[in-house]
Amino acid sequence: MGYAHLPAYLKFSEKVKLTAICDINEKSVKVYGKTSNVRAIYTDFEKMLKDEDLDAIDICTIHDQHKKQTILAAEAGKHILLEKPMATTIQDCKDMVQATEKAGVNFMIAQVLRYLPSSQAVVKIIQNEELGPIRAVRGDSLLKQSTILPRDHWMFDGNRAGGGVLITLSIHVIDLLRYYLGNVKRVSGICKTTTPLFINGAEDYASATLEFEKGTIGNILGSLSVGRTPWNVKYMIFGDYGTIYSNPPPQKVSHYQIGNAVLSSTKVDKERKSSQIGDFISIDSDSNPFVGDNPFINEVIHFIECCQNDEEPFSSGKDNLETMKIIFGIYKASNTNKVIYLDDL
Ligand SMILES: NC(=O)c1ccc[n+]([C@@H]2O[C@H](COP(=O)([O-])OP(=O)(O)OC[C@H]3O[C@@H](n4cnc5c(N)ncnc54)[C@H](O)[C@@H]3O)[C@@H](O)[C@H]2O)c1
Q1: Choices 3.30.360.10, 3.30.160.390, 3.40.50.720, 1.10.10.920: CATH for 113-293+321-343
Q2: Short-list 170, 293, 179, CA closest to 233
């Protein structure tokens, strides 16, 4: 993910200067240093923190490193941009938010789907109550991970990743739906591991039901083992007067390219008495509040601007605690065969 964030630093060098890079893999860090033209390269995160004069750190490491690195950076007074998921237990997430608040630094989680222009257009439609009361949502996240990652990759290992499909992939659409609709009250779910490639409790299939505080019900399906799929990531939002669905590009894509959200509009369609199926129109995302269309660049620049203007990012660590409660709530629901109220986590 460092490579996905890099263009933001290279393209917006008048806003932010990339000064040092760290990776425990010496070969990787050398290549990265060359690509980015940064000379200060490290294989030891703590040494980099100590030796370099940094304002902020962008952490794109493995999930089981997130807590330690975030807390070290906070204690060193650095602002922190951290790749999702925040950490591998809910207690770790709470500790991280507390440490960053205590240090008075900005702490943002890179929930990239929020930074798509189409996601911001959906927010406006929902805020304007164009869909009427929103009754139900659905989010699918489907991949065959073994076709894109080596079989011994840490993402197959529950000890390193904190879980499987929910915490690595479904978290994107879960966070986006929560961003649109507010917090979730209770969850139930079933997680399953169907292939020995996934170890230490990492699930390759998950299905969950959510009830949002405002009453909307939600349905989540995630898999990292599907044989074939018509889409990777897709969501739908059903209101009394309209439906929004994301329209993933037809080609095989990286999961962040969720595609343009498409809207069955409210008033216009009602007057035309449109049929129940069809008549969907593309959402106009012309009033893009970001620097461009690339959500990775957008999220990095949002973070930088928040640090410079002393503002809270709209995917702050504090906000993200509620997303992490959904993830860990579903795991608990699956393990205990119970409905989990997220206030209890
Ligand atoms: N937003 C998205 O669409 C998206 C997509 C993929 C991954 N991610 C997230 O990005 C993060 C990284 O995932 P990835 O796919 O880039 O993984 P990766 O394995 O490709 O890269 C992780 C890098 O971290 C380095 N590393 C590990 N421990 C380290 C340490 N202690 N200090 C310094 N470097 C260390 C590794 O050597 C490796 O180069 C994860 O949190 C993942 O969930 C997000």
Answers
A1: 3.30.360.10
A2: 170
